[in-house]
Amino acid sequence: KSSRSDCKESDSEPLPIYHHKSKxxxxxxxxxxxxxxxxxxxxxxxxxPQYLYEAGFCKNGKIGITQPRRVAAITxxxxxxxxxxxxxxxxxxxxxxxxxxxxxxxxxxxxTDGCLLREVLxxxxxxxxxxxxxxxxxxxxxNTDILLGLLKKVFSNPDKASEGRRRTFPVKCSFGSAVGPKxxxxxxxxxEVVRVALDVHTSEMAGDILIFLTGQNExxxxxxxxxxxxxxxxxxxxxxxxxxxxxxxxxxxxxxxxDQQRQIFQPSSRGIRKCVVATNIAAxxxxxxxxxxxxxSGFVKQLNHNSRIGLDILEVVPISKSEAxxxxxxAGRTSAGKCFRIYNNDFWEKCMPEYTVPEIQRTSLTGVxxxxxxxxxxxxxxFPYLDSPEERFILEALKQLYQFDAIDRRGKVTKLxxxxxxxxxHPGLTRAVLKAASYRCPDLMLPVAAMLxxxxxxxxxxxxxxxxEADERHRALASKSGGMNDFATLLSIFxxxxxxxxxxxxxxENWIHWRALKSAFSxxxxxxxxxxxxxxxxxxxFESFDGNEKNKLRLCLCAGYxxxxxxxxxxxxxxxxxxxxxxxxIHPSSALFENEKDFDWVMFNDVLVTSKVYIRTVCPIRYEWxxxxxxxxxxxxxxxxxxxxxx
Length: 647
Ligand code: ADP
Ligand code: MG
What we know:
Mean pLDDT is 87; it is low at 1-11 and 158-166. By secondary structure, this protein is of the alpha/beta class. The protein has 23 helices and 20 strands. It is globular and about 75 Å long. 39% of the residues lie in helices and 18% in strands. Bound molecules: adenosine-5'-diphosphate (ADP) and magnesium ion. Adenosine-5'-diphosphate binds next to α2 and α3. It is an enzyme of class 3 (hydrolase). One of its GO terms (molecular function) is RNA binding.
């Protein structure tokens, strides 16, 4: 035990990476570009930056470490500050979108890959850094892939790979029978993982449980049921291992408050079995010690570009086989473990792909292509991507940027494009914000943009009786704000709570997520600051507004959302106008759901695919508002743009 930072508090055995410390530091000094591999949990994320810090890498710049996920960036920074006995936010800090916990003094900076990409925009040489660690490169997140490509242009090829010693124990995997090739409804597998968890709890020896589900809603639902059922266990009779005397249920997902997250890493007290119910974040980014049992739902939430409807959709899909192996491996870190897969062999064979497709090959590239263009990468088709996305995805991005006036016919970034790239939002939303700003009414759009950037503020309890009550409350809120525009409802809830004396109580009563709303307040302030900076530019494109004030919000939205316009087709179905002509339906959570008869044109924020394709956060619009914009969806010849891109 030679240095406090090499050891976990609870045991004195150094982490595997410790044995390679001097070799690693030397290798980093000697090479421009280094690949470090080692088994999950060996200490790459938390230890390597500390080694570099000790070795003096902070003398002429910061140590920057990127993470694809915000929770990981925050949690790991907390952990490292703690291990180094330094204050978080001073020498060790983190920065994620809308949350900057760094100061001038910060020397070790954890951040999301998106944040570093923004820094590259401002300073392509990254001159404030002496070393950059791109973590979780194997996850192939879109931003990390792009960063690799950018760094590859600056540096030569990787010099060396150092292999960590494997240190895992066997994990016995079993298949269940609850999920087969035809099962995709999440209510089914949530119940099943809970059932298996309780079974493990009562019939297996001591050891903590880790459950993999796909998102916050499911996780909270599972925790609720678990909690309820665990209450009824009689520890004198029902439990096989008499040393087990209780169950501690802990959710773990991206937008959780960080003080709650900290509990996850604390060893459970004697006799208490910990049960962590997590998203995929627990598969690689965060390592929880003491896990002996894995319960794998077989699903993950993934952002996929749906080229049939031309939009990015967050959907629940089967994990890949390699992902399933990774999940199972989390049980074998300290002793032999068990992994309970709730799906059957047929599901494994027929539904699960071998490997996960990199994000760059499955999501919209609009934001990234604009970023690249602003960095001076004109030829976005021949950029050194790790895995090139399909050319049609790049073309689609170019087309969309052209439609937003972010690039011109020759593929050059316009003035507007330069403004757009400053916003950490989807380009369409950014376009709407800038439109409002140019009409000198940013206060109409900033709160809406903020509300759309945080997690869903409407609580959906899922429990049928409570759900009815929540729905009623939400409908009442919608009708209070005019009743026919989901964007306006968001705006009015924002303002109401901002000026309310007891917002938390009001939120509770109305089934509104108070914490999400609070983040929206902070996001709005930050977007406002960015916008304020841009408006100081002498060439900010102000314009006069000569329409009806009543329609102003929707007119601003049209500037960015004309790509998301649909026209009434047959009965309750609408047909999208983006050239894909997909059939969509208004989601039951929309205020327009019940009143579907009165309008022919709608604009929407996002799409949800279940048995049908649903559009969410909707408002009716008039055809005149988009009449001049819609032709843009077809006018541009993508081949022209692509030829320009290749020049
Ligand atoms: P790697 O990046 O190689 O997967 P990490 O550096 O994340 O490994 O983790 C190294 C060890 O530190 C793991 O055993 C993990 O359990 C422990 N650890 C990481 N974060 C925390 C934390 N917040 N609290 C307690 N232990 C932690
Ligand atoms: Mg790591």
